[in-house]
Write a structure and sequence with these properties.
Layout lengths: L14 E4 L2 E5 L4 E3 L9 H7 L6 H7 L53 E4 L7 E4 L2 H4 L12 E4 L7 E4 L20 E4 L7 E4 L16 E4 L7 E4 L17 E5 L6 E5 L18 E4 L5 E9 L5 E5 L2 E2 L5 E10 L7 E6 L19 E8 L8 E6 L4 E3 L7 E4 L8 E7 L3 E8 L5 E5 L5 E3 L4 E5 L10 E8 L1
Amino acid sequence: MANLNFPANPTVGQLHTVGDKAWTWTGVAWAIQRVSVTGKSAYELAIENGFVGTEAAWIASLKGTKGDTGAQGSQGIKGDRGDKGDPGDRGTDGTNGIDGVDGVGVPTGGTTGQILAKNSNDPFDTTWVTPDYLSDYTVPLGGNQGQFLGKITAADGDFEWLDLPSGDPSNPELPLGGNEGQVLTKNSSTSGDVKWADPVGGSGLPDGGSTGQILTKNSEFNGDATWQDAPEAGDAFPSLVDNAGKILAVKSTEDGVEWIEAPTGTGSGSTPVTAPWPPVTATGTGSAQNIILPVSLDNTYDIDVYINGIHLNSSDYSVSGTTLSLTSNAAGDSIEVRPASGGSTSNGSGSGDGSADPYYRMMGFFAASPAVNEILMIAITDIPITFPANFSGSQAKLIGMQPGANFVLSIRKNSTTEIGTLAISTTGTATFLTSGGTSKSLAIGDAISVHAPGVSDTITNLTWILRGNK
């Protein structure tokens, strides 16, 4: 028997042939098909049975003799109406009618630019007149199709035929087309080179959102933002109502922040301002510069001023109320003003020992999701500081999106030595740890920095305060 070689993975209805046999796959088994065999034609059978002649002659012989006329059948059903016939030939023209009475013609005379006007209410009583708008001014000659009549100067009648604006940088035309919701986008720096396009990147607002939601950054990239519920008033973010003029400070006895009255100077110069108002930063202009502070001060000993991380002597600036005046700086300098940290001032003239507040605080935050290994905070110490084991007394609060995985910030001394971590769990819980669970000390001039982890995440709006002992 011949090898049938059925396909290994047939589909239902697939045909498989071997020689003069055929099978079809039913989904369960191959079913053999009925094979037709071509037999002899009627003409061949006629030859075998004695017919002599061609096939055409045989076909002609199949016609019988004419039969008798049959009886008349019953009347058939009325057929559908036939199509409309072609138009008939045009008939011959009729004879001309009688000429009518001559009408009243256009009056003779008139000059170029005049118009036909009524003399009275009587029919056809007209005459050529000069219109009022042409009595003093004449429409200029010339002009091309599509041009318009435009004023050349403010003088009456001073106009001429002008082309519609096209490609004029001062009058760029809007491009044709565009769909609902699209915006006009520049193709290049050339004036008027614009097109209709869908909003993309950081230029458009995201779709969706509900009443009362706020726009929150997802990352440092332009336009990467989403609608989110605004933080509710409470421990995470206290209400703004009836707190005008107050500042946000970390609670002293429990987690969270609260509004407190803004501190002011003592007037004696003996005790620095210790309330935790946030540092003020500015960029140098290259000349004498005024910086507005969040509190009113009476002397230079209430604040610490840094330029590019270097602590200034009080002789380099002055204060008056909420205004700090720098005598000089370089353009682009990084300027930072903080509440005084206590202890002797840099010029040795202050007598406060900082006993009113034994702590040194450093605050940091980010709003958008940080980049991989991004430096989120960096500060330099101007007094010796000791952080207790596991940063006891330090605070952190997440008021934005929770991370997708455990998010661990690295806290480093002089950028390279890790002295601890701040971990944020997927539920938003903050945990401080020092390396080895021991206290960590910083000397004057040491830098402390906070670094994002080596993986990206969707976490947003995290703030923290590192508290050390003076």
